[in-house]
Amino acid sequence: MPDKILFGEYRIEKPLGKGAFGTVFLATHLGLNVPRAIKIVLRNGSGRTGDEFAELEKRFELEARLGAQLDHPNIIRVYDYKPGKDLLALIMEYAPGGSLQDLLDHSRREKEQIPVDKVTQVACAVAAGLEAIHDLDAVHRDLKPSNILFDALGHAKVADLGLAQASGGASHRSTLGSLAPKHPGTPEYMSPEQELTSSYLTPASDVYSFGVVLFELLTGHNYKLKQPGTHAAALRPDTPTWLDELVAAMLAKAPEDRPWDGAAVLKLLKAGITKASYEEERAQQQAARVKSLTAQALNALEHSKPGRAQQLLEVMDRIAPDGKAAADALRARAREMKITLPVISSAAPATRPRTANLPRRLPWVALALLLLALLAGGIWGFGI
Ligand code: ATP
Ligand code: MG
To answer: Rounded CA gap, 211 and 228, in Å?
Structure first.
């Protein structure tokens, strides 16, 4: 394809890399004489069916639509989407500094660790990019080293919004219930809820993937292949304590136990880097979270929703340092209001796979079947 002129506007220079769905080329915009990166998907490429092509068309459209709303220094700009007869083309900003995956590959080859300062610098840029995405009420869903690129100045930028969960998906997914499709993404970097459930994802899902990326930058290993709960500092002893704690918090199994979104992670990074006080920032965020959960739980009690209240109280129990005390105060309030709180599992509601309720329901299902069988037997016996 090199030297080919596309849409009469772009000269294709050379391939930059190949992904699961298409190839990214370096191109020159002939009118402006500036470089662009163009992701191209061929209609008949690798035995692709019409349905798969239609699906990719939707992804490109979404990426172009979100891209048009995101003019941010830490996000790869999307300039245009061109659906052609035989191919789809997404015109993007060209990032000449390679990807974070390239940096990881290089550090593995050379057996050199990535300096902690470089890790925190990349982390701040990615957190700022995520903040902009989360501000649009979207969730990236495919944050990974090959989707973090470097510009000419070495600034990291988040790329590839084609798999994003766009705003408004909550009601859509809850309407579909168990028919909602599974989340797309890359299993090595997916959050537990993205991998196991098809319910609406919160920004905390990207925070988990971001935690996996940071763990890998620090240690060279993928967190998901390690024992759950493994700390980066156990594999990389010069990891600062605050950064080790932040990465561990980002990798919490339950989304409610993680810093909530890109903005929260960015604040914690800044507090840790300036040594102002990571602990103080974390405590402030936790206090704000306890306050918001308290209001939600109280609202649930006042509207006679003890199940919902109990779920929220269990989340509060896990928030140090004041969550448990606030939850206990609400339990006392529930007793005053003569509301009995149900006993539910300590697993976080948002991460529990749909099927997790099944064992609790099994005795009831069995009882219902038995009654049906007895009834049928009775009817049979009476010869009706
Ligand atoms: P997947 O298909 O699973 O998302 P991927 O991210 O590697 O994997 P692509 O998004 O198609 O796949 O990108 C392929 C490669 O092209 C990337 O790894 C990156 O090195 C390069 N690339 C992508 N976008 C750009 C860009 N805007 N500027 C420079 N290089 C890019
Ligand atoms: Mg990509």
So the answer is: 13
Active site residues: 142
Rounded Cα distance between 26 and 10, Å, is 10
CB 255 within 8 A of CB 316: no
CB 124 within 8 A of CB 270: yes
Protein residue closest via CA to atom 5 of ligand 1: 19
Pairing, β 78-83 against β 34-42: unpaired
Cβ < 6 A, ligand 1 pocket: 16-22, 24, 37, 39, 76, 92-95, 99, 101, 146-147, 149, 159-160, 186
**Of all atoms in ligand 1, which is nearest to the CA of residue 93?**
27
pLDDT in tens, 331-366: 999 999 999 999 876 554 443 333 333 344 444 444
Q: Does residue 137 contact residue 163 with C-beta atoms inside 8 Å? A: no
213 C-alpha to ligand 2 centroid (Å): 14
- Strand ranges (E), 30-114: 34-42, 78-83, 87-92
Whether pTM exceeds 0.70: yes
Tokens, residue 330: 């609400």
24 alpha carbon, closest ligand: 1
Residue nearest (by alpha carbon) to ligand 1 atom 11: 19
Q: In whole angstroms, how far apart are CA 355 and each of 37, 193, 204, 358, 361?
A: 43, 13, 22, 5, 10
Enumerate residues 6+ apart whose C-beta is below 8 A from 73: 128, 155, 157
d(Cα 250, Cα 268) in Å, to the nearest integer?
A: 11
